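pls design
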């Protein structure tokens, strides 16, 4: 199955269950896992069958709906929310989606909750697809600004911020795809993103889409920037604080520092749902630590954070469904986003 060519969503409804593309099987196999209840949804998020903040949020929303179909009581609702919230602490989309679900159903009669929850989960998924398409549209203007005749625009990314991380289109890669559709020549430097090697997923989906790309060792990024072989860096985000500090896959901060040193624009592509306006700065973002076994089999002390925080002063701008904003514009725009 060619996910990109057929426009297949990474999350699909299947009766009263959902199908999600099992990212632990990629790039070797394209397999959809069937999630049937809260427990399978929580396991899929925790074990990284589902990755990417927007997709995690949408998947969790359906988990609430399935949980309420089994037990629609107040006690069950709180248990469902607690179980799903505990799966991944850093990605704000998860907690945003759970709060949307809570607000939708908490005041309803229990018998009405499951149907209302399913409709709300569908809305969240559909809005994610729409938002990401708009991110691509707004990011295209940035790509045009970096066009240089017939030479390929050289984009560097980190982790996977493509279709696989969202319901459809992607965030950082939505910009790349928009440029491709517009006929602009583009080449992507794809960072490995150790230790889970999500760069392989980015390479896989770029290959499906026919976008020229090169997989690089994480630590080759600075050298490429020094050699003036990168025009701009575009990454995704798991959480953006109110001041613009941004949590993303560990290693993002190093790329932002290198980009700053070499005068290369560094952009973050993320939907509004990834902005945590209740978090004043990056110091308030909880950084998830993964199991040591992911990093090494040796019996030695291991520090394996899943994310790091890039300070706002290193971010050239945020590409959102509402347009492109500088970090200092987030607070003034917040009232409009809530409208």
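designed seq:
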């Amino acid at each position: 199955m060619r996910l990109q060519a057929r426009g297949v969503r990474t999350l699909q409804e299947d009766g009263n269950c959902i199908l999600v593309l099992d990212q632990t099987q990629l790039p070797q196999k394209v397999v959809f896992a069937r999630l049937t209840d809260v427990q399978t949804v929580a396991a899929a998020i925790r074990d990284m069958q589902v990755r990417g903040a927007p997709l995690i949020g949408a998947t969790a929303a359906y988990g609430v709906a399935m949980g309420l179909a089994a037990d629609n009581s107040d006690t069950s609702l709180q248990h469902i929310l607690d179980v799903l919230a505990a799966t991944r602490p850093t990605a704000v989309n998860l907690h945003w989606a759970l709060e949307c679900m809570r607000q939708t159903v908490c005041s309803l009669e229990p018998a009405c909750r499951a149907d209302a929850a399913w409709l709300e989960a569908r809305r969240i998924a559909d809005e994610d697809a729409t938002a990401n398409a708009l991110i691509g549209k707004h990011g295209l203007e940035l790509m045009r600004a970096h066009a240089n005749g017939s030479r390929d625009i050289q984009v560097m990314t980190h982790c996977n911020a493509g279709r696989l991380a969202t319901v459809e289109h992607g965030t950082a890669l939505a910009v790349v795809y928009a440029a491709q559709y517009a006929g602009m020549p583009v080449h992507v430097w794809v960072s490995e993103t150790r230790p889970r090697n999500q760069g392989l997923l980015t390479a896989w989906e770029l290959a499906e889409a026919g976008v020229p790309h090169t997989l690089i060792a994480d630590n080759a990024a600075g050298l490429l920037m020094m050699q003036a072989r990168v025009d701009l860096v575009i990454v995704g985000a798991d959480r953006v604080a109110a001041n613009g500090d941004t949590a993303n896959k560990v290693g993002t901060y190093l790329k932002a520092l290198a980009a700053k040193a070499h005068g290369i624009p560094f952009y973050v592509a993320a939907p509004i749902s990834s902005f945590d306006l209740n978090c004043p700065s990056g110091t308030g973002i909880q950084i998830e630590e993964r199991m040591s076994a992911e990093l090494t089999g040796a019996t030695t002390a291991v520090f394996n954070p899943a994310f790091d925080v890039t300070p706002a002063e290193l971010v050239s701008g945020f590409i959102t469904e509402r347009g492109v904003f500088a970090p200092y514009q987030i607070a003034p725009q917040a009232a409009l986003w809530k409208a």
